[in-house]
Amino acid sequence: MRFRSFMAIDWSGAVGERQKGIAVALCTIGDAAPRLLRPTGHRHWSRQAVLELLLHHLPADTLVGIDLGISLPFEDAGAFFPAWPASPPDARGLWALIDAICAHDPHLAASSFVDHPELSAYFRRHGGREGSHFHLSGALHRRGRMRVTEAAQARMGCKPYSNFNLVGAAQVGKSSLTGMRLLHRLAGRLPVWPIDPLPDRGSVLVEIYTALAAIEAGRTAGRAKMTDHAALDAALSQLGSQGTGGEGPIDDHSADAIVTAAWLRIAAGREALWHPTELTAELALTEGWTFGAL
Questions:
Q1: How far apart are the first and last CA of the chain?
Q2: Domains of the chain: total
Q3: Residue 221 belongs to what domain range?
Q4: Which branch of life, at top level (predicted)?
Q5: pLDDT one-digit tens code per residue, 24-73
Q6: DSSP 23
């Protein structure tokens, strides 16, 4: 174990500057309950404030987990956007493309990307607008195209949705696309595993799926969300953590972040999680992986 702190970020792709859906929790080595971090001078986090936190205020040797997809499906078709000549060759190229197209979208939003005259054909959008390339011939799935890591999540009992799907309460496409703008702006100053190799020292950011933490904490994928402190503290106990000491209701975003930070603390030292059998060198550069998926 070389990490000293463990941070979990529940992310949001919603429109607007500050988001109720963003929660940040931090814990250190030991068994103390993770604590929620609040942005200075505000009740809710903005995506830009999270970027500033990661760039300038991260404790040394922190494992950061962020709940979003760090890339789009590539392996199934040999491209993010098959039949589009400008489809980028890897995840970093994808991040740069999204950030460039959305340069005038405020608050790290990604509206311009999903409304792009050619790229919109790959997404399922509101109003019954399903692009002609949302499904690939021979790879039909009602939830859309999947990455290899998302197939692994499904085998573990989760119910992942395609990052090309932007509709419904379970969709993660919007948060993933806005998150890729954040990842691009980290500009290599915080390594993103496995797109970047795991360094011998320093902080690292990984993709997380909070349901994986909840499952290890004794929940099921269908009951992964916790909305009261009693359920939260029971989950923390399963992860070898002290309880928060709180009472009454808690929003599910905060609970997700707290539980996942505690899970990262015990999962970080598991060698197998850093070496999934399906994670090839090429896949690491294109689709990436979800930490904890096997």
A1: 20
A2: 1
A3: 1-294
A4: Bacteria
A5: 999 999 999 999 999 999 999 999 999 999 999 999 999 999 999 999 99
A6: E
Find residue 7's DSSP bridge partners. Answer: 26, 64
Q: If you write DSSP's letter for every residue of 44-113 in order, what string do you get?
A: SEEHHHHHHHHHHSPPTTEEEEEES-SS---TTTTSSSTT-TT--SSHHHHHHHHHHHTTTSGGG--HHH
Instruction: Specify the 3-state DSSP secondary structure of 266.
Output: helix
For residue 112, count other CB atoms closer than 10 A to its CB. 15
pLDDT of residue 85 exceeding 60: yes
In sequence order, what are the beta bridge partners of 96? Answer: none
Q: How far apart are CA 70 and CA 181, in angstroms?
A: 10
Half-sphere exposure in the Cβ direction for 134 (13 Å, CA): 22
Handedness of CA 95, 107, 119, 179 (dihedral sign): positive
- Residues 92-125 have pLDDT tens digits of 999 999 999 999 999 999 999 999 999 999 998 8
- Local structure of residue 223 (DSSP, 8 states): G
Residue 164 CA to residue 23 CA, distance in Å, equals 24
Residue 286, SS3 per DSSP: helix
Phi, psi torsion values for 247, nearest 5 degrees: -135, 155
C-alpha neighbours within 13 Å on the C-beta side of residue 75: 18
Q: What is d(CA 190, CA 205) in angstroms, rounded to the nearest whole number?
A: 7
In the predicted model, is pLDDT for residue 239 greater than 70? yes
Dist CA 276 CA 293 (whole Å): 8
Which tokens sit at 292?
């904890």
